[in-house]
Design goal:
147 residues, alpha+beta, globular
């Protein structure tokens, strides 16, 4: 695993660039920036040495949801996604929160990572994600800390 620094993320233009490079249907700059203006959102970036990945979470009471996680396509396979999810799990455990996420049914690599990190499939949202030829199901996954 490559050496990298994970720290709370502050708004910067590099987030938009990474989102556009790393997602087939990227969030807009306005949506991304709104996450940094709302006290219920927290974000972490991974640096090696520049920003090469980030995770955005939304937290309400005893639940935290991974809203967006992106790793630079050129940096994938180096464990950065795992490090970001592990950081969020540590925060959720410390705050006694369950952790939720949705992932495209076609993203079997991400699903395997989440399952290896203790997430369980708890449901589906049919026709949730946009695709070039229509829509795709979202797989809903949950992780609960062992206290």
């Amino acid at each position: 695993m490559s050496a990298a620094l994970i720290k709370p993320l502050e708004w910067q233009q590099a987030i938009v660039e990474l989102e556009q490079q790393g997602q087939d249907y990227p969030w807009t700059e306005a949506v991304l920036q709104s996450c940094f203006d709302d006290m219920h959102y927290e974000s972490w970036g991974i640096y090696a040495p520049q920003l090469c990945g980030f995770v955005i979470t939304h937290s309400i009471l005893d639940e935290r949801t991974i809203m967006n996680i992106v790793v630079d396509p050129l940096e994938r396979g180096k464990g950065f996604g795992r490090q970001l999810v592990s950081t969020v799990q540590a925060v959720a455990q410390q705050q006694q929160q369950s952790l939720w996420l949705e992932v495209r049914a076609s993203n079997t690599v991400a699903q395997a990572l989440y399952q290896a990190m203790g997430f369980s499939v708890v449901g589906q949202r049919p026709n949730y994600y946009q695709t070039t030829d229509g829509s795709e199901t979202a797989i809903i996954m949950q992780w609960t800390a062992e206290h």
